[in-house]
């Protein structure tokens, strides 16, 4: 359980950090903010995205199933939720596209799982 929580915390930190970078570098913005002091969409960064990938991490036992689940999750986030946020005026894409988000989610999912497997392997050798 601790491993899955750590995986989710890592995703939350990474999603928040990348969201801050994207807004600071003008790739996208959030015209509608829950709090004017926060430039990102924190509920998505700290809850929706991490929980989605935590469930994948917990319930997939092979790389094949994880990658397939990651592709499906990336498609849902990039091609369903992002356009919905655009329609609702919650997101404004400037120098970014849904396709870039799609591939970024897949890359980050595979990289994060690889990192956690590497850490687990190193732990067992001590």
UniProtKB/TrEMBL annotation:
Membrane-spanning ranges: 39-59, 66-90, 102-119
Entry keyword Transmembrane helix: yes
Keyword line: Membrane, Transmembrane, Transmembrane helix
InterPro entries documented for this protein: CBO0543-like
Protein name as annotated: Uncharacterized protein
Lineage, top ranks: Bacteria, Bacillati, Bacillota, Bacilli, Bacillales
């Amino acid at each position: 359980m601790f491993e899955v929580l750590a995986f989710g915390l890592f995703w939350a930190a990474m999603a928040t950090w990348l969201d801050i970078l994207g807004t600071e570098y003008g790739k996208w913005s959030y015209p509608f903010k829950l709090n004017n002091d926060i430039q990102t969409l924190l509920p998505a960064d700290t809850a929706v995205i991490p929980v989605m990938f935590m469930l994948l991490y917990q319930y997939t036992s092979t790389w094949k199933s994880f990658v397939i689940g990651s592709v499906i999750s990336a498609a849902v986030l990039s091609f369903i939720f992002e356009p919905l946020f655009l329609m609702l005026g919650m997101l404004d894409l400037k120098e970014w596209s849904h396709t870039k988000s799609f591939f970024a989610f897949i890359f980050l999912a595979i990289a994060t799982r690889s990192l956690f497997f590497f850490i687990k392997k190193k732990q067992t050798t001590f």
